[in-house]
Design brief:
about 80 residues, 2 helices, about 75% helix
Amino acid sequence: MGTEKRERQKANKAMKHQQIEQQQARRKTLRIVGIGVAAVAGIVLLVWIASSLTSSDDSPEPVVPVVETTPAAAEE
């Protein structure tokens, strides 16, 4: 059995190793999430561009009749 100092050193080394593994797992998760978000954004962008290119601008705009009111009619 080692001394108390050696046991503390082993425990600190094991804790540091565990923290490094957790940090690597966190980075991997964030990377995967980032790739997923970028992929979804890319798909949305492609769909938006495709819909803009394929929309038909040949149909005329709907005509909305303009109703004018006179100040006298507004008072009544």
